[in-house]
Amino acid sequence: MKKTVITLIVFLIYSNAFSQDINQIIVDTTIESEILYGYCDREGLTSGQFGSWFEPEYQSYMVNDTIIFGINLDFLFSCKITVVMGTWCSDSQREVPRLYKILDYVNFTENKLTMICVDRQKNADRTEVQELNIELVPTIIFFNGDEEIGRIIESPEESLEADMVRIAGQ
After folding, report:
1. Which of 49, 106, 112, 170 has the smallest count of CB within 10 Å of its CB?
2. Average pLDDT in the 9-33 region?
């Protein structure tokens, strides 16, 4: 019994030491407001004050199904997507809920989606954001394996759907 308790304690310490904080909230001293920082997920984006901009944008966005089905869905489903955003950024507040709506529409699995929230300097400790060369947010990066195959930076060139077709087309 004593050995089992010690093993459990060691396991909990070990897993806590290597776990990543998700949906961490910090205060942006520039605007004296809370922002998400580091890795986040849909729950973080839809809770509290963040839901006040996420939910209305998500609900009101109409996916252009004529364009979206130009995407090679088999190829898209084999991709991973990393989004670097700022919850303080109006472009992120507009484009990220729309991206979620599109991904939900095509049944893209969220375990292939990585969300990283940055501060105004485009930093987020304990993430790979420095390696991604982020200049503007949101930046939506598509990967096929370890190879980057395309980005949507700040706002789409045409539309999210059309830009996704360009990146993960036929």
Report:
1. 170
2. 68
